[in-house]
Amino acid sequence: MTVRINDILDEVSAYIPDADKRIIEKTYVFSARVHQGQTRLSGEPYLNHPLEVAYIITQMHLDVAAIAAALLHDTIEDSLTSLEDIKQEFGDEISLLVGGLTKISRIHFQSTEEEQAENFRKMLLAMSKDLRIFLIKLADRLHNMRTLQYHKRQSQIRIARETLDIYAPLANRLGIHWLQIELEELSLAYLEPEAYKTLKTELDAKAKEKEGYLKEIIAKIQTELDKEHVNADVKWRIKHVYSVYQKLKKQGIAFEGVHDVLGIRIIVNNMEDCYRVLGIIHSMWKPIQSRIKDFIAMPKENMYQSLHTTVFGPLGQRIEIQIRTKKMDYIANEGIASHWRYKEGAKISEHDGEKLSWLRQLLEWQQELKDPREFLQSVKIDLFPDEVYVFTPKGDVLRFPAGATPLDFAYSVHTELGHQCTGAKINGQIVPLRYRLKSGDVVEIMRSSKQHPGKDWLRIAKTTRAKTKIRSWLRTQEREQSIALGKEIYEKKLKSLHIKHDVDDLLAEFSFKKAEDLFAAIGFGRISINQVIHRVVPEQKTVARTRAPQKKVDSSGITVKGVEGLLVRFAKCCRPIPGDVVEGFITRGRGITVHRRDCPYVADIDPQRLVPVEWETDVSESHEIEFSVLCKDKPGMLGSITAIIGGQDINITKLKANSLPNGSSICNFRVMVKNLSELENLFDKVRRLSGVEKIERLLAS
Ligand code: MN
């Protein structure tokens, strides 16, 4: 049956008695004129589509402007009509909605992940202007899915995939259950036609088989409720194909293994009755403790409220039971649309939209996240409602995505608390940062003013909020450190060459806007100081040449934790090699110097200037170290030692031997080694030589 404009007008009048039907009629005429002669793939007049979409909008009980916009939603896209025309004819409110819809309709998700993310961002932005835009878009998508059979197989798959990936999860997130279900069922039917058919048949058969049993159960419940004078509507329901499909896929089981495809729903008048009914049910049948869920006290983020329990029924079979009020049931189906539906005398207000904090947060984040892929990733994580609920020590409930850690908790309370988080006490027990929160945990964050975020925190944190804060802290730190460093390097170099130069004159040469940017580049090691000096005094080529070529930063074999790309050099005093326990020291003007932790110099360093450093694996560069051998002063001794060193393929860069009065000799060697194990291996071999009394690595020469 095709929808006629009168059906829409009838529907509107039913929930808005004094609706201004003239506007709807006027938009209808306008749309009919624009779409005249156009047909859909099905062969029917194009106008049927906006009519169907507008009809779905009346099913959501949205206001007249939304219905008008639904009728006009494709007029700009498919014709020569302009948004300006719409604005002149129908005013600001309707043209805002139509404009938003037109923008969204130009977005296509089937592209690279990056584009997809960018498009998603655009869609959210359009939505954020007015949520009705998105509700109309969902209605549009629903009708397109209902008429997908006219498309070619390839575009069926593309559109169904996009619906399942983007629109159904968003409908879920907005709590519009009925629409989510229909989108999922239709998508699956196109994506996995065989699996869908089989499952559907099996579900129907199961429903038939169980019908009698369930009716019996319902009668029993009804009798008990009557005894307790509880007014309730008891129904049974069957699971949707898509949710069973997902369950089978997730658990890797056959259909026979799924027991809870049928359930019972009890609708009562008020919240107190929900809990009373739960008590009555539990007195009738034994509940499975872990399956009792109170979404009334802890509503889901999409506003869903209900009590859930699973009991062992009369024949020992599991029965899933949901208990909720009429209002909760309504919201469970309509979600955000229930807040946007037309209310008599009350204009739809911004305030209603505020209830959907998730959407606001999402939009906030999208401004902070610069990498679109990262954004998409976080949206995808946030879209899927695997959530954990935990308590603050005061008993407040906080909600997190599954896998969230104390870091997420800390950042959700306060950014500073996040930065200083060292761990948490969960139910009184100390746990590390990477502990995964579980529902019901009481979380107390431990903090220290000495604590700072590290790069590894990005892997520990799960929520977008925490990651964004960590990343922004790291970026600021990195930049501040390198600006200071770069500035010192620059000034010191000029001083050593006895030149004065205004740094601002150099900016254009390196295409920087501010001195800070140039300093940061020097500090990061992106530009060497010699490159800069060369621009200051081109004739002073010798300065650049006589010095050893600047080592590439990434070949130093060491990374500075949390601060990548800084100039790194190795201390001459202790000459650390890979494998040594090391500390980084922020020098004044020469980047980071790496010392062995047992270097006496380290003990005197201001702890404020120490930074954690780590060896990179698989580094093949050699480092110079110094060691001394105490041995018998006999002919051939020195030769034997150097032979061993050479036999290990180790280069000697310096050698000094001194005879002692007691008939011993001290030989000092400087050699190039790759790492600690190579050095230890060498020491073992030298130690085994007869005549060698002692071998030790020297800290300072
Ligand atoms: Mn459309």
Structural commentary:
With 701 residues, the protein is an alpha+beta fold. 49% of the residues lie in helices and 16% in strands. It is built from 29 helices and 21 strands. Strands 1, 2, 3, 4, 5 and 6 form a six-stranded mixed beta sheet that branches. Strands 13-15-14-16 form a four-stranded mixed beta sheet, with no helix packed on it. A four-stranded antiparallel beta sheet has the order 19-20-18-21, with helices on one face. The longest helix has 35 residues, at 193-227. The chain is elongated and about 115 Å long. The model is unreliable at 344-355 and 540-554 (pLDDT under 50). The chain binds manganese (II) ion. Manganese (II) ion is lined by residues 49, 73-74, 140.
**How many individual helices?**
29
Amount of helix: 40-55%
User: Structural class per helix/strand content?
Assistant: alpha+beta
Please indicate the percent range of residues in DSSP E strands (runs of 2 or more): 15-25%
Could you say which small molecules are bound to this protein? manganese (II) ion
Indicate the mean pLDDT. 81
Q: What would you call the shape?
A: elongated
Low-confidence stretches: 344-355, 540-554
Our measurement of the CA-to-CA distance between the termini, rounded to an integer number of angstroms, reads 95 Å
Strand count, sense and barrel status of the largest sheet are: 6 strands, mixed
Radius of gyration: 36 Å
The overall strand count is 21
